[in-house]
Specification:
Layout (H helix, E strand, L loop, with lengths): L2 H8 L7 H7 L11 E4 L9 H17 L2 E4 L13 H11 L7 E2 L5 E2 L11 H13 L3 E4 L3 H13 L18 H9 L5 E4 L8 E6 L3 E6 L6 E3 L7 H11 L4 E5 L6 H11 L5 E5 L3 E4 L2 E4 L10 H7 L3 H12 L3 H7 L24 H13 L3 H15 L1 H9 L1 H9 L17 H5 L24 H14 L6 H14 L2 E2 L2 H6 L6 E2 H13 L7 H8 L1 H16 L1
Parallel strand pairs: 1-2, 10-11, 14-15
Antiparallel strand pairs: 3-4, 5-6, 6-9, 7-8, 12-13
The structure holds one RNA strand.
Length: 556
RNA sequence: GGUCCCAUCGUCAAGCGGUUAAGACACCACCCUUUCAAGGUGGUUUCAGCGGUUCGAAUCCGCUUGGGACUACCA
């Protein structure tokens, strides 16, 4: 068989050669150990949080090693492609401060010397390489239709044989030149298949950067490397693109582990150096008693939009994800509490082999810590940015009361032990809303269970009423608090915690309880920052107004 | 079904043949207390099971169980 002739018959228009491509995409001149890697999404839906995770890791590898991080769009499946898919991905990634050295921008323009970076525009490369494989006898045209493969599959299933296109099921593997020519003349469309030289009994051993040594069964299938539409499936595009983009570490989800053998076979047939892999475990989610991969369909938290909507600060999510990525991150953060997150070096050997369960409470904790370190201006800016998109009412209140709002956010901020009231911006309103007249809702004090039988409605009202008569705008916290204590003593509360603890039955409660009553009366909340500062910000009139309101509600 | 991957507290996890089996989140208790938080201290809870190898196993090897992935002209 003259393979060269066959190749020309199949690809009469293709003149591009492997040598041309090797020359067009020369080896990169980078320092030793530089990692060239890529993120290669398919524009088939929203941006998945797992993608952000993988990108964070990949970006870190590339940047820290003096390498390159590439964005490549894998849009060879024309059926699953969605409108604006690419834009969605890039914008989402940019929100999380992930930037590429080469790739495609939001407007679809390429940047970098190893492009183009969109697979549907790289057809000439795939065709050239497919032609090359045919010309050296390592690939062949396949005219089989879907019916044939369905039928074969049914037979294989029934007889418990391996499922695939191999052996006697590889109908087109040994077609003669004349038969191929005849089919083409008849107008039959064809795909290109790799001529597999191995079998399932053969085992291969692969070193994975995360998994370590992997023992896999070899591929036995004559896999399709060029579909009937002459676009490659993932396997062939992966080999051609990662080779010619001079990628040296492929970071991808572990669902690809079973196809490593197939991919390496393609690299080998092509005469490419085998590539290194790092297979990342996917994020998981609890369902019933078992874990499962976090799913685009079922889980809102799979979509990065979820975190944006909830108002998780970008730095909080990034920090959480890094926490999941590398077990020593926490240690590093402890040692470098104020360091920039970008200074952390992610390593493959510290990456978990099994998928981490997405832990929202942990995210909240991380996020609270991150926010607690922001200054008031930053809290204001980020919160407003969030509110403008997701809570217009709150946004306009923030804008109208900018200086005031910043003062609110300043309470106990910038201290060695800053408050940790909020984990995400959508909590700001409920945590600080009472500061704003528009959002303050008086609450019935009696609804609060103070856990003391003696705390009846009448007593509460008496305390509030009395406080109204003695309240003054103080300049000193100590004076203000002294009055709270005095007020308590008058109604039988202890003004000394130790005395109270020694004989709790002798008192109605302690000064903390008095403060709580006043706190709820003024703010409608049991948990707030320092009440004195709140009163100062609110101003005398407003405080009195609210106390009167509280008293009124109690008399009903 | 076949192939492969994975398995330490409720969750994230250190661990690499000898440890009282770290730490973090969550939960509980206590302490501190000029309120609320924060903080401090302590606690509950873990090596999936069974067999080997070894003086010695969470660690190495088998099997079992459980979970997951793949099994497309999807990626």
């Amino acid at each position: 068989m003259d393979y060269k002739k066959l190749a020309d018959l199949l690809f009469p228009d293709v003149t591009l050669t492997k040598e041309d491509l090797e020359a067009r995409y020369p080896k990169r001149e980078l320092k030793d150990g530089a990692i060239v890697t890529r993120f290669a999404p398919s524009p088939t839906g929203f941006l998945h949080i797992g993608s952000v995770f993988t990108c964070l890791v990949a970006d870190n590898f590339a940047k820290k090693s003096g390498g390159v991080f590439i964005l490549r769009i894998e849009d060879t499946d024309q059926n699953r492609k969605i409108e604006n898919g690419v834009k969605l991905i890039i914008q989402g990634l940019n929100r999380y401060h992930i930037n590429f050295d080469e790739g495609v921008d939001v407007d679809g323009n390429d940047y970098g010397n190893y492009g183009v970076y969109t697979q549907s525009q790289r057809k000439d490369i795939y065709k050239a390489m497919a032609k090359y494989l045919v010309s050296i006898g390592k690939a062949y045209p396949c005219f089989c239709d879907e019916e044939t493969s369905q039928r074969d599959k049914a037979i294989q299933e029934a007889s418990k044989e391996l499922i695939g296109y191999y052996g006697s099921y590889a109908h087109c593997r040994n077609l003669t030149y004349e038969e191929v020519e005849e089919n083409i003349k008849a107008g039959k469309k064809f795909a290109i298949r790799l001529k597999c030289e191995s079998n399932a009994d053969h085992k291969i051993v692969v070193e994975d950067a995360i998994r370590g040594t992997l023992k896999l069964s070899d591929n036995f299938n004559d896999v399709v490397i060029l579909k009937r539409d002459f676009l490659p499936p993932y396997n062939f595009a992966h080999a051609c693109d990662d080779h010619f983009m001079r990628v040296n570490l492929v970071i991808r989800g572990d669902e690809y582990i079973p196809s490593i053998a197939e991919h390496l076979q393609i690299f080998n047939a092509l005469g490419f150096e085998p590539i290194k892999y790092a297979h990342v475990a996917p994020m998981q989610k609890m369902e019933g008693n078992s874990k499962r991969k976090i799913s685009k369909r079922k889980d809102p938290e799979a979509n990065v939009a979820f975190y944006l909507e909830e108002g998780y600060p970008v730095d909080g999510v990034r920090e959480y994800l890094l926490n999941v990525a590398n077990s020593n991150f926490e240690e590093w953060r402890k040692a470098n509490p104020d360091a920039n997150i970008d200074d952390f070096v992610v390593t493959t050997d510290k990456m978990s082999k099994s998928g981490a369960l997405f832990d929202l409470p942990k995210l909240n904790d991380v996020s609270k810590n991150v926010i607690s370190k922001f200054d008031a201006q930053k809290v204001y800016d980020l919160c407003l940015e969030w509110a403008e998109q997701y809570d217009k009412e709150f946004a306009s209140i923030l804008k109208e009361n900018k200086d005031y709002a910043i003062k609110v956010f300043s309470i106990e901020r910038g201290t060695p032990k800053p408050r940790k009231d909020i984990a995400k911006w959508n909590e700001t309103k409920s945590a600080f809303g009472y500061f704003f007249k528009e959002l303050y809702k008086p609450t019935c004090l009696d609804d609060y269970a103070f856990n003391y039988e003696k705390f009846n409605k009448e007593l509460l009202k008496k305390i509030v009423d009395k406080y109204i008569t003695i309240y003054q705008q103080e300049t000193e916290n100590s004076i203000w608090f002294g009055k709270i204590k005095e007020l308590g003593v008058e109604f039988g509360f202890a003004d000394d915690m130790k005395v109270y603890k020694a004989n709790p039955e002798q008192f109605v409660g302690h000064y903390g309880d008095v403060a709580s009553i006043i706190r709820v009366a003024i703010t409608g909340k049991a948990n707030t920052p320092d009440l004195f500062q709140i009163c100062t910000l609110l101003g005398y009139e407003e405080v009195i107004k609210r106390l009167k309101l509280a008293s009124e509600i109690l008399s009903n």
